[in-house]
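A quick aside before the break. I want you to see a complete sequence-to-structure record at least once, exactly as it would be stored in a machine-readable document. Don't worry about memorizing anything.
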Amino acid sequence: MKTLGIIKETKNKWERRVPLNPEAVKQLIEKGFEVIIQPSQIRIYKDGEYKAMGAELSEDLSRCDFIIGVKEILLDALIPGKPHLFFSHTIKGQDYNMPLLQKILDENITLLDYEKILDSKNRRLIFFGKFAGNAGMVDTLYCLGQRLKQHHGLETPFLKLKQSYKYKSVQDAIEHLKIIGKEIKENGLPKEITPLNIFLLGYGHVASGCKEILGTFPAVEVNPENFETHQKKYENNKVYFSIFKEKHLVERKDGSQFDLQHFFEHCSAYNSKFEKYLPYCSVYMNTIYWNTDCPVYLKRSELAKIQGENQKLIIMGDISCDINGSVQATVKYTTPDDPVFIFNAKTGEVTDGFIGEGYADMAVDNLPCEFAREASDYFSDALMPFMEKMLLNDYSKNIENSNLPEEIKKACIAHHGKLQLEYEYLEEFFKILKENRHE
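That is the input. The structure line, written in tokens, reads:
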């Protein structure tokens, strides 16, 4: 019977998530599979919990038939010739992970990526998104309170928030936020920041996690097209939020009517029109998918125009966290214990902490690890229906002719050292990277 290896997470000290929880491992062992767990000091589930379910603990995973993890695997931890499943963060041609992809090709490794496990309608099936939204919204509101106090000298109920990782669970955070929401309803917010308008860019799983947190407040949804009226009629004891879809964000360069499917297929044919909404935005939550062909929605030039003593925008919660991507202020990642920096759009300077001219930017890049146990259980339940077939598959065959489910076939980026047809576009990113190194 086949052997599964679960590799330890090495991204940073905060990465406590697991792809499969102990109960899922027990189920695989009961079906006759062997499971080897690399020991870890930071994993949310302890080594002993896996051992109690019948798993073996070992640093050596070389005899495993299939290797899984959560985040990117260190280059020297990859096992040549073996199939691996993890979030590789390579499908956008991210230059910081091109060496990882090159190593995978050089070592004849088969790479499967969770991000591309999709159903027939291209919807992701295995994800942490809701928990990224939960943690990102909590952390952004925490940072909002700190920014308003430390830089602007304003006392608000948001000062009472804790960072996500300091709550026992999502529900623990929700119960605490309900108390803060009650205080907002009873006492209101300072006139200097009202109406407090929270913009959610996107409407998927991450945005739903944000909305779950906002539901603890006296929150009212505002249609993006109604801000001019909204500015004249609002209440200071409410929080306002708006959902921005693609139709609000872009327009065709040739002046033709917006078409969602056309945008998905030809996003480079569109310009951003978000600048018309920017003067109304207090908190910008970025939860939308973006790649280099898409328009930039929050441009540094537009931020520079409105930066000043009376600027409305206070903070950006960049959950999507594409460096130099759709939010040009996001020039680096942050960590749960140091979640924010200040970006001066006029100078391009970055200052760690909550004080400084410009905009606060919360850019933690692995937010679900702040609710690690719940996120791992949810993820494990979503992954388990595919595990048996992935373990039993004969990876000596072409992926197209294998017994893998169609959802998994689409998630194969490379097989035996070669990019799959759908991902051959990544060759261009290797060329660009080589050219930049020679300049």
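Two observations worth writing down. The chain is about 30% helix and 15% strand. The mean pLDDT is 95. We'll return to this after the break.
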